TrEMBL record:
Record keywords: ATP-binding, Kinase, Nucleotide biosynthesis, Nucleotide-binding, Transferase
Name of the protein this chain belongs to: Thymidylate kinase
MF term (GO), any: ATP binding
Catalytic activity: dTMP + ATP = dTDP + ADP
Matches recorded under CDD domains: TMPK
Organism field: Candidatus Berkiella cookevillensis
Membrane-spanning segments: none
Entry EC number(s): 2.7.4.9
One GO location term (cellular component): cytosol
NCBIfam families assigned to the protein according to its UniProt record, in alphabetical order: DTMP_kinase (TIGR00041)
């Protein structure tokens, strides 16, 4: 199978409240429109073990979950996910659409938790090597706009309960990552109405399809 014909791995990123779930649905509908065989998955999660890790990461417990513990748990789940789900799908010529991947750790734990990026990248190199998405779409919106949206939710997880400075650092880190790798990243203005966001996503997917 030539590189041009190979299935692609696309991740969707962004802070809380930018509409990832709704827009994952739309991206899935676009892949269906383009008649691509694909799987849809998420992080943390994607396998039974990784979903158990997700539960630990998102639920508030009496025991404080330390930043380094978060990172190690994320990469334990990610290793399971990549080797049991993502790589097998790509090898089977299935496209992969993933809600968050490695850039979420760089943004949330590196930016938000202010953990050393060099240490995270060193761990990433050990666990994943050079494996990364072909394309990463960031749904970007001002922090104030995004947080206003999540305030309507009844049950907030550990991350959604963080303050505005935490999410500001995350957003800034996402934008910095995109600036470093312009060939991989695409930024969508998620502060616009849903129709406008979908138009941007459709344009990006059309561009991706033209690379085949």
């Amino acid at each position: 199978m030539s590189k041009a014909q190979a299935a692609k791995f696309i991740s969707l990123e962004g802070i809380e409240g930018v509409g990832k779930s709704t827009n994952m649905d739309y991206l899935a509908s676009l892949l269906t429109k383009y008649k691509k065989d694909f799987i849809r998955t998420r992080e943390p999660g994607g396998t039974h073990i990784a979903e158990a890790i997700r539960h630990i990461l998102l639920q508030t417990k009496d025991e404080v979950l330390l930043p380094k513990t978060e990172i190690l748990l994320l990469y334990a789940g990610r290793y399971q996910h990549v080797n049991h789900v993502i790589k097998p799908a790509l090898e089977n010529n299935q496209w992969v659409l993933c809600d968050r991947f490695l850039d979420a750790t760089l943004a949330y734990q590196g930016g938000g938790r202010q953990q050393p990026l060099a240490s995270i990248l060193q761990l990433n190199d050990w666990v994943l090597g050079d494996f990364k998405p072909n394309y990463t779409i960031i749904l970007d919106a001002p922090v104030e706009v995004a947080l206003t949206r999540i305030q309507k939710r009844k049950n907030l997880d550990r991350f959604e309960k963080e303050d505005i400075s935490f999410f500001t650092r995350i957003r800034n880190q996402y934008l910095a990552l995109a600036e470093r790798e312009p060939d991989r990243f695409r930024i969508v203005d998620a502060s616009q109405n849903l129709h406008a966001v979908h138009e941007q996503l459709a344009s990006i997917m059309h561009e991706i399809m033209q690379t085949e």
